[in-house]
Write a structure and sequence with these properties.
- The chain is of the alpha+beta class.
- It has one domain: Orthogonal Bundle (Cytochrome p450), CATH 1.10.630.10.
- The strands form four sheets. Strands 1-2-8-5-3 form a five-stranded mixed sheet, with helices on one face.
- Belongs to the cytochrome P450 family.
- This is Cytochrome P450.
- It comes from Blastococcus jejuensis.
């Protein structure tokens, strides 16, 4: 019998989707689905097939070409198609050109040089939270969000005086919503972001800085290597990818560790476990649950299934990362797991450009947070936490995470791991 969830894929329990992922994965590697908004697509859920699809030459990322051919596909690229001309929405040679122009900002030497600044931001944010004493604080609002948002803002060259407004607009734009159309507040936030980025480009032309936006503007104006749409799209994509996924990684990872106290205690006792713990958290509860859309350019054979030409394809990275055909005991969090490979950052030419930055921020965040507050507890049971996201299928993160950093007395509310 066909799983009814396949008829409304995306309209499932975001708080604990993994039992559904396991059920669908057991039914086969590839499934034809109807998305919650009524569009048809093909879903890939097993590791071997997912990895193959992420590098398949017959799958295109160019949604502009797909839309021109078939208006029934789903257009990505908030806040609209005008901002969708970034490296995640094009194929080579455009992808190669766009990625090369941004890649220097995320090189290994640049990340090493950034480490002291990230540590300083982490320390300041935790100082601010610690001032609240033993009251409940929201770890997302006070730590997991502002850390990566501050770092990516500094890399891009967004003035400090503008960050509160810009951050609030992105929070509104990406807030959970069950409405079929974007809420008025999200539309307004989207318009504000567009206006701001257009004005920011103009200001960088007048007053260049030593930042990535200035580099992109110079490439557009001097070398004619970027169109205005590509510059705006790239900046937007880097802001979203540069903060939102890391926010979710820190939030999801903190919950995972608090629900597995013996593993958290081991990490506190030996901070050298943090890098491996991050890889296991990325595998076990990936912030990016599904890849961004692909589109078949001809009939494509994956996992014994022929996906017809000009069909939309989504890859469940989260389902693939718990595939028992690839991992031993995949449903169990094990921060000492020897095999640290996963698909949480994708694979192939679209592998996450900011993976080094995300790992750097997460390493410093987890080491400092859990080392400084070894008795931190969740202030609510796990069953009261809510995972959802306004962007639809792709991202999954906490809207808030109430914790007490240094509780007086015994353990606080918690549940068994889901």
């Amino acid at each position: 019998m066909r799983n009814p969830a396949l008829e409304t894929w995306g309209d499932y329990d975001r708080d604990d989707p993994y039992p559904l992922f396991a059920l669908v994965r057991a039914g086969g590697p590839v499934h034809e689905v109807t998305l919650a908004d009524g569009h048809r697509a093909w879903l890939i859920v097993r590791h071997e097939e997912a990895k193959a699809a992420l590098t398949h030459a017959g799958l295109s990322k160019d949604m502009h070409a797909a839309l021109a051919r078939d208006g029934a596909v789903v257009a990505e690229g908030l806040p609209g198609p005008a901002f969708a001309r970034h490296m995640l929405g094009v194929d080579p040679p455009d992808h190669t050109r766009l990625r090369r122009l941004a890649s220097a900002a995320f090189s290994r030497p640049r990340m090493a040089a950034l480490r002291p600044r990230v540590q300083g931001i982490v320390d300041r944010l935790l100082d601010d939270l610690e001032a609240h004493g033993d009251v409940v604080v929201d770890l997302v609002k006070g730590f997991a969000f502002p850390l990566p948002f501050t770092v990516i803002s500094e890399l891009l060259g967004i003035p400090e005086s503008d960050r509160d407004h810009l951050g609030s607009w992105f929070t509104t734009l990406l807030a959970p919503s069950s409405a079929p159309e974007p809420p008025a507040a999200a539309v307004s936030a989207s318009e504000s972001i567009v206006r701001y980025l257009v004005e920011l480009l103009a200001s960088k032309r007048d007053t260049p800085g030593e930042d990535l936006i200035t580099d992109l503007v110079n490439s557009a104006d001097r070398d004619d290597a970027l169109s205005e749409q590509e510059v705006l799209s790239t900046i937007f994509q880097l802001i979203v990818a540069g903060h939102d996924t890391t926010t979710s990684l820190i939030g999801n990872g903190t919950v995972a560790l608090l629900l597995h106290p013996e593993q958290r205690d081991a990490l506190v006792a030996d901070p050298g476990l943090v890098p491996r713990a991050i890889e296991e958290i990325l595998r076990w509860d990936a912030p990016v649950q599904h890849s961004t859309f692909r589109y078949t350019q001809q009939d494509v054979a994956i996992g014994g299934t022929i996906i017809p030409a000009f069909a939309q394809v989504i890859i469940s990275l989260a389902a693939a990362n718990r595939d028992p055909g690839r991992y031993a005991d995949p449903e169990t969090l094990n921060i000492s797991r020897a095999d640290t490979s996963h698909l949480a950052f994708g694979h192939g030419i679209h592998h996450c450009l900011g993976a080094r930055l995300a790992r750097l921020e997460a390493e410093i965040a987890f080491t400092t947070l859990h080392g400084r507050f070894p008795t931190m507890r969740m202030a609510v049971p796990r069953s009261q936490l809510r995972w959802s996201h306004g962007d639809g299928l792709v991202l999954r993160g906490l809207h808030e995470l109430p914790v007490i950093l240094a509780p007086q007395g015994g353990p606080l509310a918690s549940d068994h791991p889901a």
